[in-house]
Amino acid sequence: MGNVFKYKKDGRQNAFSARNLKYFLETLATQGGFDQIHIVAHSMGNQVLTQCLMSMAGEKPETRLFGQIILAAPDVDAKAFVEVIAP
Questions:
Q1: How far apart are the C-alpha atoms of 8 and 81, rounded to whole Å?
Q2: Residues 6+ apart with CB under 8 A from 11
Q3: In this structure, how many other beta carbons lie within 10 angstroms of the beta carbon of residue 55?
Q4: Cβ contacts of 22 within 8 Å, gap of 6 or more
Q5: Gap between the terminal Cα atoms of the chain
Q6: Could you tell me if 74 and 41 are in contact, meaning their C-beta atoms sit under 8 angstroms apart?
Q7: CB 47 within 8 A of CB 14
Q8: Half-sphere exposure of 67 toward its Cβ, with a 13 Å CA cutoff?
Q9: Cβ proximity of 39 and 49 under 8 Å
């Protein structure tokens, strides 16, 4: 069970997962043989996912690798999402 006092620490540890998640998503999208891949992230997982997707989009902006991306209860700043992440 989560602990509100460890929230910031969890966020910092979350950042270490970004490289591995990016590798997994790239491998899944390019070698998985799927017609479409949809992604669902919840809460703090949205921070890692959006970081990965922004990095991937920066490297290959013309390539669409995923179908629907659902950010459930996203723990992402709304203004940052609109101004930085969504574009």
A1: 20
A2: 44, 47
A3: 13
A4: 52, 55, 56
A5: 35
A6: yes
A7: yes
A8: 7
A9: yes
In terms of Cβ atoms closer than 10 Å to its own Cβ (0-12, 13-18, 19+), residue 82 is exposed
pTM of the model: 0.82
Q: In degrees rounded to 5, what are phi and psi of residue 12?
A: -65, -40
- Measured distance CA(53)–CA(37) in Å, rounded: 13
Amino acid at 49: L
Are the C-beta atoms of residues 46 and 15 closer than 8 Å to each other?
no
pLDDT in tens, the chain (87 residues): 567 777 777 777 777 888 899 999 999 999 999 999 999 999 889 989 999 999 999 998 888 899 999 999 998 888 988 998 888
